[in-house]
Amino acid sequence: MITSLFASLLFPLSALAVPAPGPDGTYTLSAPGITAKFIAYSAAITSLVVSDRNGVKRDIILGYDNGTFYPVDPNHPDYGAVPGRYTNRIANHTYSLEGTRYFTEANDGNGTLHSGLNGWSRRTWNVSEVTNSSITFTIRDEANSSMGFPGLVLGKVTHTITANTWSTKLSARAVDHKTPIMLTTHPYWNLDAFANPATDLVLNHTLSLPFGERMIGIDGTTQSTGELPKVKKGGVNDFVSKPKQLGASMSDPEWVGNCGSDFGCSGYNNQWIVDRGTLDKDKPIATLSSDWSGIKWDLYSDQAGVVVYSCFWMGGTSLDTFIFHLGRMLT
Fold it and tell me: How many structural domains compose the chain?
């Protein structure tokens, strides 16, 4: 069974009533082989349930069971969120645009992560449309709502659920001023749904990046260096030569520090460039699978890069009031 992202499959609307939100503001959409939940806070996906090889339903995306906890989580891990208006990092919390230097909020060491502490993943979006198969969120981002980002931006995300498929369409428009814009979705994956008795980690998951021959170079603090190095064949970051398990390179000396040498980050928090020709535009840019559950997904995208984060810093303990899934995952 394959769960595909960013696919463009079509599925006829059912005759069921348009979904209403639950008590915690969660919207639930279903199609053959798949059920997903979404909330307006950060336009996030909070759950994605599919069946494993034995027909057991598994929730393969990390998320809180109660949607009201997302805004109050002090760690704010961006579970399933849509960060913006500029996702990922801005080195030294500064950039230049048309001769003007702007300073953004330093919320990740000396850098800016996901536009600072008032980025789109920390706001409640408007629910502009709900159908039996999709939900659309919109956001109006005024100039300097996040420090250092000029101009008004109108953002929109539509999540669509069809047979065995979750697809997401992201768009943003700068209305009155040029400004940096880069959007993504931020789901955390565990294809075993933390049910594998041998491990709750994803190091046994197999990843393939068939077009990932180059990467975005990073320094010891994970800030971009501007370099575009080629992946070392057989090295820690080589998922292009052949698929391999995420933990296959743990014995490689380069494993420690691969995702941030200044703080000894082991594993992945890296971006691969999608180097593909026009004949390959309809092929998946990534495939992740689990031998234990038999679940596999293919990632389709029209974007030029893909980030893999193996959640080195994440763990957790259960809370008395709010229940959430535990363990490490992949985003």
Answer: 2
